[in-house]
Specification:
FAD/NAD(P)-binding domain, 13 helices, alpha/beta, 2 domains, nine-stranded mixed β-sheet, five-stranded parallel β-sheet
């Protein structure tokens, strides 16, 4: 039975990170009469950009596309570090007076939809408390990201307890860690490892990136010369809009080339690596993946910092597999032993579905693996729930902005139609045929695919992960597509 809750909001946003703050800004502008609250499990805003504190933390997307479409990025560096991105998020919240709508330390445990009440009841737990609190809303917008904020992904390593040094995961980086003059092994070859290596190489005795298999790596300057010139001669908003358009087009063109000319792109990428490291370096072994470019996310190396660290002799790459941890380091299957004082397990994220919240509709638990995705943002059979999931092949915020704008259009459409419930409902022939994400083999995605909704081979029951297609689907959206079923006379739940 639904509990009586003392508070009602038109909209509840879960998460006060990059997506949640942006969504609130769009909501205030497009739906000014709607009441809303942001529930944030941590004690501060910023999400990813406040949580991660490891050395060198930065974006691997340019800030002209990772930034919001309504707030120009003003800094000279387009590839920004974590503190600069966090500052940008906080500035946005302050400029739009968002902070007063945020309730910190509120972990959402369960969301229960009641058709009779035309609303969600949100069960949440305050940090440090064992009891639950409840609020109600009509529309629920999930902006909680896709990974577990409590811990990262950590595979089982034989003999881990034997190691006499320090083992840390980048998601749990200790503030007082002193790695000066130490020998460090970083396990992993993703964006986190590529960020850590150059930064730590400045102070360590020796640092090794230990990888099972290589990753595609590409170097770009951290400053966008064209963006900086445009900002000097044009109004700020014009300069930002032009740069954003330019970078989106470049991202799309690059991705399309990896799909239609993978071998050509591979040759170009590897030729650039050889130019950085010389013909004597074993590029085939350490920088040539078994998969095509963008079958997994490529790693950006700003200003060739990784290559510079390798050329200096302070950093090196070992491509091998782990037999066991030892007292002094890591014994490899090749028989070689890597000695270390510190081992960093840059082994990736632990993904969870919709922030780990449990959902039920009229008392029936929702199993998202048995549902279909509507445009990659709603779920079949689940009313009034929209979730933000960004791009895996472009900047996250490009899609977050589109989702927020579409959400606002939906809310206004429902008001105009005088209805309070919208439920994505498949029709005849709408069958799940493929996973939520296609053509992307990274482990952090593959580990969670069986828990996500499925997609069809036709719109709107698809998740194309393509900015051009999404813009066509989202902007000036038609809500009479036959897939969205509207019901219930509009009323305020008290």
């Amino acid at each position: 039975m639904t509990r009586v809750s003392s508070e009602f909001f038109d909209v509840v946003i879960v998460g006060a990170g990059l997506s949640g703050i942006g969504a609130a800004c769009h909501l205030q502008k497009e739906c000014p009469g709607k009441s809303y609250v942001i529930l944030e499990s941590r004690e501060t805003m910023g999400g990813t950009w406040d949580l991660f504190r490891y050395p060198g933390i930065r974006s691997d997307s340019d800030m002209h596309t990772l930034g919001y479409n309504f707030k120009p990025w003003k800094e000279s560096k387009a590839i920004a570090d974590g503190p600069a991105i966090l500052k940008y998020i906080k500035e946005t919240a302050a400029e739009h007076d968002i902070d007063r709508h945020i309730r910190y330390g509120q972990r959402v445990l369960r969301a229960s939809w009641s058709t009779a009440d035309a609303g969600w009841e949100i069960e949440m737990q305050q940090a440090g408390s064992t009891g639950s609190r409840f609020i109600r809303c009509n529309m629920l917008l999930m902006c909680s990201g896709y990974y577990n904020y409590e811990h990262g992904y950590l595979p089982e390593f034989a003999g881990r307890e034997r190691f006499q040094g320090v083992i840390i995961h980048p998601q749990d980086w200790p503030e007082d860690l002193d790695y000066s003059g130490k020998r460090v092994v970083v396990i992993g070859s993703g964006a986190t490892a590529m960020t850590l290596i150059p930064e730590m190489a400045k102070d360590v005795e020796q640092i090794v990136m230990l990888q099972r298999s290589p990753t595609y790596v590409i170097s770009f300057p951290d400053e966008d010369v064209i963006a900086n010139v445009l900002r000097a001669i044009l109004p700020e908003k014009w300069a930002y809009a032009i740069t954003r358009w330019k970078n989106i087009k470049f991202q799309q063109w690059t991705y399309r080339q990896t799909r239609i000319r993978p071998e050509t792109v591979r040759r170009i990428l590897l030729r650039r690596v050889r130019k950085e490291l010389g013909d004597d370096y074993d590029v085939e072994k350490h920088f040539t993946p078994r998969y095509d470019p963008w079958d997994q996310r490529m790693c950006l190396v700003p200003n060739s910092d990784l290559f510079e660290a390798i050329r200096s002799g302070k950093a090196s790459i070992v491509t091998d597999t782990i037999d066991t941890f030892t007292e002094r380091g890591i014994l490899l299957d090749s028989g070689n032993e890597l000695q270390a004082d510190i081992i960093v397990t840059a082994t990736g994220l632990d993904l969870i579905v919709l922030g780990g919240v449990e959902f039920d509709v009229d008392g029936k638990p929702v199993d998202f693996s048995q549902t279909m995705t509507y445009k990659g943002l709603m779920t079949s059979g689940v009313p009034n729930l929209v979730s933000t999931f960004g791009y895996i092949n472009a900047s996250w915020t490009l899609r977050a902005d589109l989702v927020a704008e579409w959400f606002c259009q939906l809310v206004n459409h429902m008001d105009s139609a005088g209805v309070c419930q919208v439920t994505p409902t498949p029709g005849p022939g709408d069958e799940p045929v493929s996973p939520y994400i296609m053509g992307f083999s990274s482990g952090y995605i593959q580990r969670v695919l069986d828990r996500l909704p499925k997609q069809s081979d036709r719109a709107p029951w698809s998740n194309p992960q393509d900015y051009r297609q999404d813009r066509k689907m989202f902007e000036n959206a038609r809500f009479d597509d036959g897939a969205l079923v509207f019901s219930g006379e509009i009323r305020r739940c008290a």
